[in-house]
Amino acid sequence: MKFYGKGLPNCKTEELTGKLIVIEGADGSGRSTQIRLLTDWLESSGHATVNVGLKRSNLVSTELEEAMQGNTLSPITLSLFYATDFADQLENNIIPALKAGFIVLADRYIYTLMARDNVRGGDPEWLRNVYSAIALIPDAVFYLNVSPRFLIERNFQKNTNLDYWESGMDIRLSRDIFDSFIKFQRKIKSEFNKMQQEYGFAVINGNRSPRAILTDLQKKIEIVLEK
Q: What 3 state SS string does 99-132 have?
């Protein structure tokens, strides 16, 4: 296992004997469902697992959630909040679990953070320095590619409304939240297409049933576990 950049000080990557598997995708793409199903499958097969995700840091997750409720955060402040959240989880959750030989299932990773910030007009080089400098290179990354129209339907089934931030309302793509959501998610999708070429992660058709997606993921993860 290696870091993208310099990594965290005093972390010896040869001691990280576990596996880091990332599931990427927009809200409504089925990430949480797949993480749950994969956790059950892996643990029933005798693999110890740990789940991590965005806004779960003990250091800033509560403050980040509260700040987002006001819908007033600037793009840079939002980036720094999420970067702190990621760094804290990396040091205190991800690396210790990998040292213990666990499989870490990440419900999104730095790719979502960089995609969002690029769409919000961030400086790509600055974003790389912020997010990639300390990030571990995952053993596998799977992006659940779902049509924005499907995402709207699934979000309404789950929450009965669309999220302000996931709709890109803060960057004023449209006054209409439905229109803004579709435009924002299309831009995010475009960013992931670019990153897929650079980082080489697998793109999974997320428009299918959860069971079909799970079967696809299981086959690919089995190969990762055999390495």
A: HCCCEEEEECCHHHHHHHHHHCCCCHHHHHHHHH
Global confidence as pTM: 0.89
Rounded to whole angstroms, how far apart are CA atoms 181 and 149? 10
Question: CA–CA separation, 195 vs 190, rounded Å?
Answer: 9
pLDDT value for 26: 86
Low-confidence stretches of the chain (pLDDT < 70) are 67-68, 70-73
State the pLDDT at residue 65.
74
> 155: domain CATH number?
3.40.50.300
φ/ψ of 11, rounded to 5, equals: -105, 115
Burial class (CB in 10 A: 0-12, 13-18, 19+), 227: exposed
The single residue listed with the structure tokens 């004997």 is: 17
What SS3 class is residue 213?
A: helix
Please indicate, yes or no, if residue 119 is contained in any of the structural domains. Answer: yes
CB 142 within 8 Å of CB 204: yes
Count how many domains the chain has.
Answer: 1
pLDDT value for 204: 94
Q: Are 31 and 108 in contact (CB under 8 A)?
A: yes
pLDDT score, position 55: 85
